[in-house]
Amino acid sequence: MEIPLSGKRVLVTGGTRGIGAAITLAFARAGANVLTCSRTGGEAADRLARELKATPGEHHIVTADVSRSEDVGHLIDECRSRFGGLDVIVNNAGRITHVPIKDLDLAGWREILDTNLTSAYDVIHRAVPLLGPGASIINVGSGSALAGIHNRAHYTAAKAGLIGLTRSLNKELGPLGIRVNVLSPGVVQTEVELSEEVTSRYQQMTGLKRLGTPEELANVVLFLASDLASYVTGAVVPVDGGI
């Protein structure tokens, strides 16, 4: 089944590597026009730019750090000037560090909360005037939000916050015809290499006995963005292989 996304105007934050790049390319290949952002540019952004150039449609990569409100303002201005509006927002930008709570200072806490949670609020807050009936917002969370992870209290708190943000916005924006959902990934094999020991442990924890791929997550994002999911909102959708 093809997912009908031709002509949709899409913003993907943090969309130049890993899961974000897979989501960005999946939208472009499905006929959408996509604008994404990179905090630093570099080889991954250059590689994605080449792939997008070879894909029909209007696609753009903007330099923006979504933990900085002025950069978010610039990002939404780019969406407005290039597309005139938005049909889909994917809040994918994220950052993780591994710090015991006794060593986690306020600056470290704020860095992770700002990147993983506050940025999603800021993007949505600024983008609401660009959205209309039928629009879809997908916030990329984590299965760790409810389970917790050792030495990552700040990260799991931020991802749990995305669930609350999503469920409230579902009720606030629903009357406008705007849907809001959380994609909750499990462990995914990206360009960040995991040790054999860690990979094996996570494989054994899943029902499918393997890690996921970025493309498998992107498929679900496309569904949530499309009219096929027109009655799906306020949901936390696990894509975790049954972990």
TrEMBL record:
Keywords: Oxidoreductase. Pfam families: adh_short_C2 (PF13561). It comes from the Bacteria. This is SDR family NAD(P)-dependent oxidoreductase. Residues 8-186 form the Ketoreductase domain. PANTHER family: 3-OXOACYL-[ACYL-CARRIER-PROTEIN] REDUCTASE (PTHR42760:SF133), SHORT-CHAIN DEHYDROGENASES/REDUCTASES FAMILY MEMBER (PTHR42760). The keyword Oxidoreductase applies. It comes from Kitasatospora cystarginea. Belongs to the short-chain dehydrogenases/reductases (SDR) family.
